Amino acid sequence: MRSRGSAEFDASKRRLLNENAALRARLDEAEETLRAIRHGEVDALVVSGPDGEQVYTLESAEQPYRVLIEQMQEGAVTLSSNGVVLYCNLRFAQMLKTPHEKILASSVSDFVAPAHSKEFRDLLKQGNKESARAEITLITGDNKLLPTYLTLSPLPAEVEGGICMIVTDLTEQESMRRNQATIEALNARLRRAMTETHHRVKNSLQIMSALVEMHVLDNAVSVPTATIRNLNLQVRALAAVHDILTQQSKRDAECKTISSMQLLEQLLQMLQEIAAPRIITYSIADTPLLSQHAIAIALIVNELVMNCLKHGRGAVEVSFRTHCGEAELEIVDCGEGFSENFDPKAQTGTGMALASNLVSWDLQGAISFRNRTDGIGTRVLVTFPLAPTSTPMSGH
Q1: 396 to 6, 243, 369: CA distances (angstroms)
Q2: Contact 310/323 with Cβ under 8 angstroms?
Q3: Is the model's pLDDT at 391 over the cut of 90?
Q4: How far is CA 360 from CA 71, 162, 366, 367, 371, in A?
Q5: Which domains does the chain have, with CATH numbers?
Q6: What is the pTM of this model?
Q7: Residue 275: is its pLDDT beyond 90?
């Protein structure tokens, strides 16, 4: 028979072995918990305390960076060495207007515009070795072009064959570039328009200077009031041309032509105020005239109509026609007509000499002075070639 001491020893041994096994189990559980925490496999712990069980959530060191990447306004993508998407943030999916799950495991080259395919392949090849960047146009899920700026860099050595790609949306920058180009083009047009305006004003002032000089030469002592009035009409005629050109420049800064109908109607209505009770009738074909031609025509019409009002009788008829690249300006009255020995060069005054010179020098045309075929009144005909840009608009 076993002694009492031996039995107690065996019982104590068994108790110690059980306690040891329990401690080992608890140790294994603690080590497994630590391993799981260390490898990011644990999201929370439940701890019992005086106030009962409490839940403590765990965050890894990577968590703040994950939040940052998901919240950034640029697309963030992890690529394999051959361009397969291993990871992308929400912003990249939004930029491509494509569901997140359809982007993962797909080749990023599938989203590159065909025109930039080769450039992207070269960029990807360089991005496997070193940091590389380029402007690449992508295609969104709704088949629209998305201008982007891509930056590719190799990931650390422990992520073998991985590439980090940052995608910046250049849509706003492209819009700013287009706006800048438009502004520069408008500024260039404005500069050209200002140059053209200065040139026209200079020419008009030179014409007025020449007119004043001509009248001074004809009237050495004093200038008659009638001559001053005529100069005033010539200034108003020039002002009418500039007024129309100014109105047109508001619509088109580079406009270099003026409507013959708009010009002559405005000018003849102004002369009608002076002619009353005499009547001025007109028939005008609408044709674009170069601004320098318009100035010459305005002064010519002013001189010829005023001459009819001064020396003729009845209505004054003005007509402007175009045919086969040539324009005809005709002015007739109901006066006594020209005498048989009428010589325009010898007998016309300062105003008529001005008209003749403008026809010859500015219009490169010809002017003829005749009597009407019915023998009642005069007929002055001005013909000149239209500029290549001057094509008939419509007949009236």
Answers
A1: 139, 23, 25
A2: no
A3: no
A4: 77, 81, 6, 8, 21
A5: 4-43+53-57 (no CATH), 63-169 (3.30.450.20), 177-385 (3.30.565.10)
A6: 0.47
A7: no
